[in-house]
Amino acid sequence: MTIQTSFQAEPVTHEGPEARATAAGDIRRMQELIRGMAVTQMIAAACEVGLPDAVDDDGTSLTSLSGRLKVHAGVLTRLARALSSFGIFDVDADGGIRHNEASRLLRTTTAGPSLHWAARFWGMPGIWRSWGALSHCTRTGEEAFSHVNGQDFFSYMNGSPDEEALYQRYMASGYPGRYAAIADVLTVAPGERVIDVGGGTGSLARTILERNPDAQAVVYDQASVISALPVASGDDRLSTCAGSFFDAVPTGGDIYILSWILHDWPDEKAESVLRNCRKAMSAGARLVVVDRVLQESPKDCDPLDLVLDLQMLVLHGGRERTLDDFTRLLNAAGFSAPQILSARPEFSVIQARAV
Hints:
Elements: H1 17-34, H2 36-48, H3 51-54, E1 60-61, H4 62-69, H5 73-85, E2 90-91, E3 96-98, H6 101-104, H7 116-123, H8 125-131, H9 134-140, H10 145-149, H11 153-158, H12 161-173, H13 178-185, E4 193-197, H14 203-211, E5 216-221, H15 223-226, E6 238-242, E7 255-259, H16 267-280, E8 286-291, E9 293-294, H17 303-316, E10 321-322, H18 323-332, E11 339-343, E12 348-353
Parallel strand pairs: 4-5, 4-7, 5-6, 7-8, 9-10
Antiparallel strand pairs: 1-3, 2-3, 8-12, 11-12
């Protein structure tokens, strides 16, 4: 019997085996990159149903786990099998699953760094829809989030409690030790007042106060953020103030901090925030900016930094910046040229003075 197929024969070429092998490797790599969106959702789905926390280090049956997690046994097995092919979990032919070094990073109960909330954030609906509209950014230069979600990122989060909770946990879990790393490079004289502009949970301000017992700090953020801060900080040197940094910034500070703020915004809005800081500052007061600093050549950049640059565009219309970019912004807003106090793979601490 002859079996007919719709497959066509591979075209005949005169390339040698080495060239064909190179082409096959490039095709394979590109296939994996194209399907990267599926891997993102696979990891996010595993975290959402609680698989990483449910797996024992000694090994667990996927069938028994499906009952405990209240999910479909067959689909859980297929999901775990697919993840294992990418090096996440070890799954055997009998349906047993064990942790490996990669899968342990997805647990919420790990004593070390956890990427659980990062996986959940990158796979959640509002973010997923926004990246699906990247072509809108390329056509218009505008951010995609409001285009597909009907409102800007922060308004959307305020009205979506589940996704807002994921976002806040993602923010809290990223870059362990970052507050200490920032506080350790700041010189704060006795009696100086630190104003953390857009200070969120106040974690950075509290860390600075721990290292500087004679300093004072103010956490300045939106009213909805300030109202959710822990009431009992146990430190009367720490106070809060509600408002928008697009309107004004509290006066009377010696050091003003913008930690992961400027990259959320395009240049004109970032400059507006900087100008409001400058209006609140006396000449000589210090501004500290915590953000990534991109290298001028993409060949010298971490690829993830450039992905995050696009993430800022997609979500907010913002961007990651080079040192020259920061210099232009700061000079336009009335600050000196920036000095890098600390450079790490994830972020740099930049200082400038009001002039």
